[in-house]
Design a protein that fits this description.
10 strands, single chain, about 375 residues, alpha/beta, Ureohydrolase_dom_sf, binds manganese (II) ion, Arginase, Chain A
Length: about 375
């Protein structure tokens, strides 16, 4: 294949993302995959003689079959000894905590649901022309030891866990858990950032009241996060907010602190590209880093029903994923995907969307040379 314009069909096929992706993927060696197959054969023993494909082992030890095996996120290595986390570029951190929920609970099962459905995926993307297995040292750090009955002790545990990962230069991807963990997530990251941290927050709910039912529930995290000296509310942008419930007191706080709030109506009127552009401008204004917080309930409840506080009329998955990829292009200091409540999910569609959000963001970070091998080799 050449890079010359391809006019065979009366238009230049080489301008198609699909054709460009095929070319780029053909250039990425499948070294890590080959290594995984070898290890599978070693650990899982050679297959029965009747099996013709000799890459298959007796015990499933790799990605296949997708429905077999012990799942980490994308079957990435389990970093059981977290003192070794510095060997990786990025780490999945599960936070199975849902005592901050104010309606339906169940998102303590979010990390496991996302891990389980992640097994359906291979590591490459044609759209992004990346291969995460080949180009990113990703691990699954397992879950934080949350204290189920105590929000404040859990916050301290999360802060300590995320801070450990970030202090080793590893990009944190946090899977909740309810949204109350947004506060300790930001608290952990902000102390490692020299300068201000902006937050891009996708949600149907504003989540910035001081307390809810006397505690720091999943309606309060941005109040406390924007009290951190280097996390100014002027750099908090909230996309998709609206509907008929969430937090009346929080609306007053957002107004007083002057956060930037975009409703779904705003997104509709502006279009997702312009809305995302505004979000990036606000979050990055005089900031050194931007944190991405993706509440799965920002997506319409008909498509993402597995969540604690659903609200009709949210984003479509294609809009949400497009916005996340656009934000990732500019670089982020960490990401959380929260409020996935598997007991209310159907066909794993909500967990799968959460998984895709993470994969798309990681894919873009790798493709843009902000994380992983291209960052090391091409900068
Ligand atoms: Mn929400």
């Amino acid at each position: 294949m050449t890079d010359a314009p391809d006019q065979t069909h009366g238009f230049d096929r080489s301008t198609l993302q699909g054709m460009q992706g095929l070319r780029r993927l053909a250039q990425i060696p499948e070294t890590a995959q080959h290594r995984a197959v070898q290890q599978g054969l070693e650990f899982g023993l050679e297959a029965a003689p009747s099996v013709q494909d000799r890459r298959i082992s007796t015990f499933s030890r790799g990605a296949q079959p997708a429905f077999a095996g012990i799942n980490t996120f994308l079957k990435a290595p389990y970093c059981e000894d977290v003192r070794e986390i510095g060997r990786y570029d990025a780490a999945i951190i599960g936070v199975p905590f849902d005592m901050g929920t104010t309606y339906r609970s169940g998102c303590r099962f979010g990390p496991q649901a996302v891990r389980r459905i992640s097994a359906v995926y291979d590591s490459y993307s044609l759209d992004l022309a990346v291969d995460l297995e080949e180009e990113l040292a990703l691990c699954d750090a397992g879950d934080v030891f949350v204290i189920p009955s105590n929000i404040e002790k859990t916050f301290d545990q999360i802060d300590r866990a995320v801070s450990h990962v970030v202090s080793q230069g590893v990009f944190p991807v946090i899977i909740g858990g309810d949204h109350s963990i947004g506060y300790p997530d930001v608290r952990a990251i902000a102390k490692h950032v020299d300068g201000n941290v902006g937050i891009i927050h996708f949600d149907r709910h504003i989540d910035i009241q001081e307390r809810d039912m006397d505690e720091r529930m999943h309606t309060t995290h941005w109040f406390h996060a924007t009290n951190i000296p280097n996390v100014p509310p002027e750099n908090l942008v909230q996309i998709g907010i609206g509907g008929w419930y969430g937090s009346r007191p929080g609306l007053s706080v957002a107004y007083e602190r002057d956060t930037t709030v975009m409703t779904i109506g705003d997104v509709e009127k502006l279009g997702i590209d312009k809305a995302t552009e505004i979000a990036l401008e606000v979050a990055w204004k005089d900031a050194a880093a931007v944190f991405l917080s993706f509440d799965i309930d920002s997506v319409d409840g008909g498509i993402a029903p597995g969540t604690g506080s659903p609200e009709p009329g949210g984003l479509l998955p294609r809009e949400a994923l497009h916005a996340l990829r656009t934000i990732a292009k500019e670089g982020i200091c960490g990401m959380e995907v929260i409020e996935i409540s598997p007991p209310y999910d159907t066909s794993d569609s909500t967990a799968q969307l959460g998984c895709r959000a993470i994969m798309d963001v990681l894919g873009v970070l790798v493709a843009e040379g902000r994380l992983g091998r291209r960052a090391t080799h091409e900068s």
